[in-house]
Amino acid sequence: MNLNHLGLGVTEVPNTVAMFEKYFGLRRVDRSPANDNMGFLNDDSGALITIFRVRDVNYPKIFHIGFMQDSVEQVHNLHDQLSADGFEPETMREEYGRKTFYFQAPGGFTVEVNAFITEATAARVRSTT
């Protein structure tokens, strides 16, 4: 069984859609509405993310969506891109064998970006310290 659908209520649909497209490679679903009130996106596996405008976003404090990267380098690159584009991602940190950071999406929810730290990555870090 696979997760195949996630619905998000956001305060800024166009900016949220643009963020998902630019930084995470999601694509708008053909023949689906994309406007100030709603947007429909697919990821590489075909999972659907529906985005609907709401007045107030009220997710539990722990709620977030995550994008696992293939490498720690990709986490660093996304952190740099987001920072350069005016987002304010948290400082990257290591936890539970992962390199990770969080940031606030334009629609009012939290996004996590992370990658597992492999032995090769750990060896490179050790050699530079």
Description:
The protein contains three helices and eight strands. Helix content is 27%, strand content 31%. The chain is of the alpha/beta class. It folds into two domains: 1-55, Roll (2,3-Dihydroxybiphenyl 1,2-Dioxygenase, domain 1), CATH 3.10.180.10; 62-129, 2,3-Dihydroxybiphenyl 1,2-Dioxygenase, domain 1 (Roll). The model has no long low-confidence stretch (mean pLDDT 92). A hairpin with a 5-residue loop joins strand 7 (98-104) and strand 8 (110-116).
Question: Short summary of the structure?
Answer:
Helices cover 27% and strands 31% of the residues.
User: End-to-end distance, in Å?
Assistant: 43 Å
Tell the overall outline: globular
Which sequence of strands runs across the widest sheet?
A: 1-4-3-2
In helices, the fraction of residues equals: 25-40%
Per the CATH scheme, the topology name of the largest domain is 2,3-Dihydroxybiphenyl 1,2-Dioxygenase, domain 1
Radius of gyration (Å): 16 Å
- The number of helices is 3
CATH superfamily of the largest domain: 2,3-Dihydroxybiphenyl 1,2-Dioxygenase, domain 1
Q: What does the main sheet amount to? A: 4 strands, mixed
